Amino acid sequence: MSEISSGKTSELSPPQTSAIEPGAGSSSAAAPAIHGATDKAGSKRPVVGSGEHTYEVYHDWGQLPVHITYGKTHGIDIDRSGFIYVYHTVHATSQSSDTVVVFDPEGNFVKSWGKDFRDGAHGLHISLEGNEEFLYLCDIKRNIVVKATPGGEEVLTLGYPDESEPYGPGPDGKRPKYTPTNVAIAPNADIYVGDGYGSSCIIQYNKQGKYLRTFGAEGAALGKVKCPHGLMVDTRGEEPLLLVADRANNRLQYFTLDGKHVRFELGVIYPCHFDTFRGDLLIPDLSARVTIMDKANRVILHLGEGPDDWKERRQLSRDNFIPGKFVCPHSACYDRDGNIFVAEWVDVGRVTKLQRVS
Hints:
Blueprint: E1 17-18, E2 47-50, E3 53-58, E4 73-78, E5 84-88, E6 100-103, E7 109-113, E8 121-129, E9 132-139, E10 144-148, E11 154-158, E12 182-185, E13 191-194, E14 201-205, E15 211-216, E16 228-234, E17 241-246, E18 251-255, E19 261-265, E20 275-277, E21 280-285, E22 289-293, E23 299-303, H1 310-313, E24 329-334, E25 340-344, E26 350-356
């Protein structure tokens, strides 16, 4: 089944190693990524966007070690030191089962870990809490959310939301499906989990993992969502609001932090997740493009719009990908300089860097 055929489907199937610790010097034995003005064939690299939103395209960014082969590259985020974390399902041919791969800002391999998430790796969010950073990892195979240190030490695990009334057993004794896709963290460290591939609810916990409330549920009306695939606490306005990628409804939806509907925003096609930079909102649209909106959520432009055959093309080999065009953007984030990193839902995995042209 296609990932987007309904709000209840997931992507298609579906000891730690360390070379450099993030924040330390970068002295990896792996060769750095090539960041010249031309590609391997000697032609100029593609350029996308316009004006202050112009970017040079570096497909297949980051130098993977030979023992790791990407599966579907579902998640990507950056820590406060500028290290890039890629979260992937692992290809069947990979010698290593590590799902979390870390690169320095130049694309050198740093370390990898996370073999327990193989085949289930999906949403990734890095959160600075006090003076510590944590990774929130969604596993759509085991249906859990794990909070971990940057080195992979488990701190907290959230499983099936047993305390939530909507997830209680039905008349047949069966419990509703639960498959978490992404999380967001509030300023007070409350945790919001989007059940994107299960029952389309949003479950809220406090920072200790104590259950607080459930809202959303599948539908198209105010306050209802269909595949809440990505979440972000948007602090660009007068008060923080929970922004939801209401993907199967082809819209964004805002909620108060206690789960009350605020408004819808349009201009997206199968939105997956979010990041922000200097007031701009970054949205990977699964439908072969990356969208940038301004502070008022007006579309500034779409980057790298690919052809309409992305559902089929995503299953093909890398030589079927068009330079400068996206196939299935699934996660994206900014670095501190406004460069963009995009991870795509393609069977062979792909990370693209959009390097800002000043």
